[in-house]
Predict the structure.
Amino acid sequence: MLRQRALGREALATMRLHVLVLVACAAFVGCAPPPPRLAATDCPEARVKGQPSQITLVPSAEGVSFEPPKTCRGQYPDAPQYYIRVHGHGTRQIDYSRRDLNECDAPDADPVACPKVHFHAFSLSVHGAMQKALGEMSVEGLGLGACADPSDAPSPQWNWSSRIHDFRHADEALRIIDAELRRWNIGDDWGLSIGGFDCVVLL
């Protein structure tokens, strides 16, 4: 019995010590998680160059029709990414299914016989046009767009887009996407993602 009482007193003393440590931690140290890593110190290349205000192109229902840039968190809290949705004016749709390319996946295909264009064929065309105009190092290929959450969304909602890293190229990139949508007679939307380079985060 005496041994059980001694063990009980020891456990109570240990618990009180833990409480005192927690109180001291909260009062003097803060017990807060470490501050988030910043691109400014870890990876400056993760930050996009320029600002959205550099977009001087004015959206038009008859001209280049696009939505204002949507801002979302990037790889670092101080390195946001941006997504711009460009609207098509044609009649054909973008096909996001898994299939091989065929004769319908061409810009001059009959829109009645070929009402759909595979997204891979169209994205390659946009990518080539943007590389030719902006330079190979200024453009990334097809991929999951900025501000997308593919966890539960179907493939068409993954913000498939072309990607650039500098807002000084945004006006020209938007014009190219609009021109390609018209050349392919596509009425669906295509995106432009603007963000920095992906960095390897060391744990």
Q: What stands out?
A: The chain has two domains: 1-32, 39-194. Confidence is low (pLDDT under 50) at residues 1-29. The CA atoms of residues 140 and 169 lie 13 Å apart.
